[in-house]
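Same chain as my last thread, 138 residues:
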Amino acid sequence: MGRYGGPCPGVRFLTVWLALPALLWTTSCGGADGAGGPGHSASSSAAASAAPASDAELCARIVAHWSRKVLDSGTYGDYQSMGLSNAQYEILRDVVDAARAAERRQGATASDELIDRQARSACAERYRHGTPSGGPWQ
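reply #2:
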């Protein structure tokens, strides 16, 4: 026992040292069961519930991104430097062609919406059975 009836200073330090990893894990992960509880942050619960993006979602994001770049610049780049497969590049060309026509007829907002919609649709079709075979360039 310590001088005033409590545990010795070394025991207090050891107790805090042993409890610290559990305390840090609980506050950063929202609880021992990962479900979150009082005092958990919104960012930790959002990160815990976020699922990895599917191949189709990744395809749609990258195709939409590069479609906007191509539409703004007016020229196509090399599909490999964009990080696209040959099939994704074909989707991009179709999306950009449709977006150019929509921009002429209906304006920039319509073409922007069309890019998202058509990239999502074409990539979902491309990856509907999982990752396509035929090599990484396909």
